[in-house]
Target: tRNA (Guanosine(46)-N7)-methyltransferase TrmB
Amino acid sequence: MRMRYKPWAEDYLKSHPSIVDVDG
Model:
């Protein structure tokens, strides 16, 4: 899965930093 950084997801990405630009 590839996900681009989005401001509304900032809090989520703080808990799941590995989800950014990761193929899975």
Q: What stands out?
A: Helices lie at 10-15. The chain has a mean pLDDT of 65.
